[in-house]
Amino acid sequence: MEEREKKIFGISWNVFLLGIVSFLNDMSSEMIMPVMPSYLMEVLGTGKLLSGSVMGAIESMSSLFKVAFGYVSDRFRKRKVFVFAGYALSTLAKGALAFTRYWWDFLLLRAVDRIGKGVRTAPRDALIAESSEKGKTGKSFGFHRMMDTLGAVAGPLVAIALIELLKSLPAETAYRYIFLLSAVPGAISLFVIILFVKDRGGEVKRKIKGISTLKNRNLQLFLAVVAIGALGRYSYAFTMWKAQELGYSVVQSIAFYALFNLIYALSAYPLGVYSDTFGKKRMITLGFGVAALAALAFAYARDFYTLIAAFVLYGIYIAIEDTIPRAYMADLAREYEKGTIIGAYHTVFGIFVLPASVIAGWLWGSYSLAYAFTFAAAMNLVAMVLMTFVREQ
User: Fold this and answer.
1) What stretch or stretches form a coiled coil here (predicted)?
2) Where are the chain's structural domains?
3) pTM
4) pLDDT digits (tens, 9 = 90+) for 305-315
């Protein structure tokens, strides 16, 4: 990163702008995320196993494309075009959900949205790394995740307001209006990318001669741990279904979800900053432990306070998991292959997230949600133990 680049709040202008873009897009996404579980089951009529599998497929879909587009952006040293294209695909797909009639066309549009995420994520994360000071990747990624998640706080609150404004309409009609309106903040973010975000990849002159970092045994072990931990990453939808199982309404479950995102947003930046000195490997290990506690809290929650504790722990866990591994991979990667290496992490994670939600959906349908959350806790405990064998970088 050029030293003369303008900074704001101690981070580069590029990282700040990408934070604004993520805020707007996550607001867009989270306007529809809280109503999707109810839309799937109440409007489209899907069952428990299919609902869990669809939500898991959605979570997993984007990751299958991340390593490919990370590699392509490394080859061309251009990140911005992929960032823009990915956000544009997602914005169009979210708005088009207003016109779905069946679970399969819903899944198709969500797949397009997730493909858009797959196109943009690794190039965007590489651009964040390239726009960061050496040794401060945790701070940059922490700020970015904070902004992203503040959008996730705003989105459900907007959704609640819209549900109240549209309560005189049939639920199905209200959901469709929310899907349509969700495209507005996404469209605004596209103008921010076009007008203000700058590429940094061209500043790296060395040609790519291979992806040698992927041959590092320590990195391979870390990716194996990521795969096991991903088997314990249940979709956010299961947490909302848990709240509804305890008798809370859709609007109340959205409020719980907003609390989770608020904890996530407040935690991501300080945890990212702290990881630069505490150690990213130790922070990731701690995250798996917090994940296990959160899953057990959801499994055995019977009252308001235990459910609140579960959402708080879930927010801290996701703040660690969605922030620190990206910075850890960016630190491991050589300058000319950051997109590829970060994309490899996202792809491994995404491949194993799909069976995680399918298993959770099957356990829910065959037994109960408690079994689904207990399975998640077990996978995270195994990942935490195995993480002790990974070396700090």
Assistant:
1) none
2) 7-196, 213-389
3) 0.78
4) 999 999 999 99
